[in-house]
Amino acid sequence: MTMAMRNNAEATFILLGFSEYPELQVPLFLIFLTIYTVTVVGNLGMIVIIRINPKLHTPMYFFLGHLSFVDFFYSTVVTPKLLENLIVEDRTISFAGCISQYFFQCISVVTETFMLAVMAYDRFVAVCNPLLYTVIMSQKLCSLLVGASYSWGVACSVTLTYFLLESSYSGHNIINNFVCEYAAIVDVSSSDPYINQMLILVSATFNEISSLVIILSSYIFIFITIVKMPSTGGRHKAFSTCASHLTAITIFHTTIVVLYCVPNSKNSWLTVKVASVFYTVVIPMLNPLIYSLRNKDVKEAARKLINIKVLCHIL
């Protein structure tokens, strides 16, 4: 353990959250509790439906199951502390707790970034090479792609967290956010922030560009293939299989680019908080809703599962 790490052990952080709006604490608590409940039920429900329905044991749903797990994990890392801070006056969090929260949320966001890219590649193979789909997207390749997404998420998180630990903090540090975000932690450090600021900018930009290149390349080929399809029904089916994924990608990446990939951003802290709420709390709830509402197979599987539960309850 370095000298900086030993000194930081005594530091604590105070998450201001939305404390400047005392009249909104209870309404916000109810809103975020509802969102978290929907997130947990939606994502765990999606995982269960995919697991128990043999019809959904395909590469697309394999990736969707892991995306649901990442969303559930991500929301669980952030939201309980947010809910606690909305109903208690003591908003402190230990140095270890704050760094741990950032470590796990970094793993989640980077993993989700590349999981969405992997899903774009999967759609590219399904639309552009349908006859070879099951051969190309073998179980081995699917597991490799998912494993690579998780591994890169861990690698990025370990690197960024290490540099946070090497910075110096003392006493009570006020974080003007509801979550231990990288920029907010760096902002209260007494060390020179330049290296940390450049590190997060380079890391986020690299992850965004590399994942978006995969996504855009995949969808350019998908679009070309769909346009060349002779049948209107075929075009409609291809578009419908990609629409949910494109919606999720657009919402997720727009928020990340605004928060992390704009150097010397002049965003107000309120804007940062709202954007942080969106991608840490709201997006994990939206993904299962987007995929379930626009996916006939998932809706059919969910309907059957509900009917079985109702029948068992009656009997």
What does this protein look like?
By secondary structure, the chain is mainly α. It has one domain: Rhopdopsin 7-helix transmembrane proteins (Up-down Bundle). It has helices at 3-8, 25-52, 59-87, 95-128, 133-136, 139-166, 182-188, 194-228, 232-260, 269-293, 296-314; strands spanning 12-15, 92-94, 172-175. A 3-stranded mixed sheet has the order 2-1-3. Helix 2 (25-52) packs across helix 11. The radius of gyration is 21 Å and the shape is globular. It starts with a helix and ends with a helix.
Protein traits:
11 helices; three-stranded mixed sheet; mainly alpha; about 5% strand; Rhopdopsin 7-helix transmembrane proteins; about 325 residues
Task: Please give the structural blueprint.
Layout: H1 3-8, E1 12-15, H2 25-52, H3 59-87, E2 92-94, H4 95-128, H5 133-136, H6 139-166, E3 172-175, H7 182-188, H8 194-228, H9 232-260, H10 269-293, H11 296-314
Parallel strand pairs: 1-3
Antiparallel strand pairs: 1-2
**Largest sheet, order of strands side by side?**
2-1-3
* Major sheet size, sense and barrel closure: 3 strands, mixed
> In DSSP terms, counting alpha (H) and pi (I) runs of 4 or more, how many helices?
11
CATH class: Mainly Alpha
* Rg computed from alpha carbons, rounded to a whole number of angstroms: 21 Å
By DSSP, the count of extended strands is 3
How helical, in percent, are the residues? over 70%
Stretches with pLDDT under 50, minimum 5 residues: none
Strand percentage lies at under 5%
Supply the helix-strand structural class: mainly alpha
Write down the overall mean pLDDT: 83
Q: From the coordinates shown, what is the CATH architecture?
A: Up-down Bundle
Shape: globular
Distance between the termini: 60 Å
- CATH topology name: Rhopdopsin 7-helix transmembrane proteins
Count of the separate structural domains: 1
Q: CATH homologous superfamily?
A: Rhodopsin 7-helix transmembrane proteins
The succession of helices and strands, N to C, reads HEHHEHHHEHHHHH
